[in-house]
Write a structure and sequence with these properties.
This is Type II toxin-antitoxin system HigA family antitoxin. By secondary structure, the chain is mainly alpha-helical. Helices cover about 55% and strands about 0% of the residues.
């Protein structure tokens, strides 16, 4: 059954055991389990620079569980890297400025990439892969 969690990053425990008391990671078998896991993982997305070791391990595990489920149930889209990025930005309700923040770069970078004026570098691909929970090579044309 889908559960609505209302956690913020700052309200989450910093230790792994405490995080497991909030949401115990388990193999994902259905859509509800998937949605619950993604919802908790989203609490950590974008806070990689502020995470404790326990939070980082917990987030990595959640991402691994989501990736395993998606690999089995979601067909991989056949998109070029820029089209994939535009799709992910739109699906997640992000702006070009949000993309710049994800990349940790100057404010104009995100919109420039989305307009095709700048290429996605390998370093960008790693950050995007981590943020969106997919393999970085998906962003390399």
């Amino acid at each position: 059954m889908k559960t609505k969690y209302t956690h913020s990053f700052d309200s989450m425990p910093r230790d792994y055991a405490g995080l497991c008391r909030v949401f115990l990671p388990r193999p994902i078998h259905d859509r509800a389990g998937y949605e619950n896991t993604v919802e908790i993982a989203d609490v950590f997305a974008g806070h990689e620079d502020r995470m404790s070791d326990g939070q980082n391990d917990y987030f990595d595990l959640l991402c691994d569980l989501v990736e395993k489920y998606e690999t089995k149930t979601v067909p991989a889209p056949k998109l070029k890297s820029l089209a994939l990025l535009k799709h992910l930005v739109e699906e997640n309700g992000l702006s070009g400025a949000d993309l710049s923040r994800i990349l940790g770069r100057s404010l104009p970078l995100g919109p420039m990439i989305l307009r095709g004026e700048r290429k996605i570098t390998a370093a960008h691909a790693v950050l995007l892969g981590k943020h969106f929970g997919i393999r970085p090579d998906a962003f390399i044309t």
